[in-house]
Design goal:
- The protein is of the alpha/beta class and about 210 residues long.
- The chain has one domain: Aldolase class I (TIM Barrel).
- The chain has 7 helices and 10 strands.
- The chain has an 8-stranded parallel barrel with strand order 1-2-3-4-5-6-7-8, surrounded by 4 helices. Strands 9-10 form a two-stranded antiparallel sheet.
- The chain is globular and about 45 Å long.
- The model has no long low-confidence stretch (mean pLDDT about 95).
Length: about 210
């Protein structure tokens, strides 16, 4: 199985193009005003317009109202939605877009039970839990705490970078990996070299998995 890649928190066209040229599968655009990686509708439009074929755009929302999500979708041609707050299953559905749900690995939480509630989701993203912060912390959680069986494909996030991504893939066996702070020069400004190294590391891991050399 090939592990897919998403780089989240894009704010500049040039960063998205570097990621696309390096082989990323999807880029993430944050529509959450409190995030240092938040984008305006105009920024998002420019980034998506510049993307080459077969690179998906993912819009990230945190406890946004239905009207707020629909307002963005009326202006920005997003491919997929990511809900990263406290959204119930009904809050994520009905936008004529596939979605995945982000869950933070809070100690004691029944992650498998929570994931099972989102039957319409394409996947479940697991991220580190930091009180009061909805993702993008750069913190890594204990991968051994991930339930052995989730109801949906697993997207691994939280503290990933080029140095630990091989171990992450070997240990977790995710469907996809999602990185933001681990490939940045500063919040919202990506580092081209870090992005290339991260994506190359995933590609090399995928090649090894395909040829059975692991």
């Amino acid at each position: 199985m090939r592990v897919r890649t998403k780089i989240c928190g894009m704010t500049r066209v040039e960063d998205a193009l570097v990621a696309a040229q390096a082989g990323v599968d999807a880029i993430g655009l944050v529509f959450y005003a409190k995030s240092p990686r938040a984008v305006s509708v105009a920024q998002a439009q420019d980034i998506i317009a510049a993307l080459p074929p077969f690179v998906s755009s993912v819009g990230l929302f945190v406890n946004a109202s239905r009207a707020e999500v629909e307002a963005v979708l009326s202006q920005v041609p997003l491919d997929v939605l990511q809900f990263h707050g406290d959204e119930a299953p009904a809050d994520c559905a009905g936008f004529a877009r596939p979605y995945f749900r982000a869950l933070r690995m809070q100690p004691g939480a029944d992650i498998a039970g929570l994931a099972a509630q989102y039957s319409a989701a394409q996947g479940i993203l697991l991220d580190a839990w930091v009180p009061g912060v909805h993702g993008g912390t750069g913190e890594r959680f204990d991968w051994a705490s991930i339930p052995h069986s989730l109801a949906k494909p697993l997207i691994l996030a939280g503290g990933l970078n080029a140095d630990n991504i091989r171990q992450a893939i070997e240990q977790v066996q995710p469907w996809a990996v999602d990185v933001s702070g681990g490939v940045e020069a500063s919040p919202g400004i990506k580092d081209a070299d870090k992005m290339r190294k991260f994506l190359y590391a995933v590609q090399m891991q995928n090649a090894q998995r395909c040829d059975g050399s692991e």
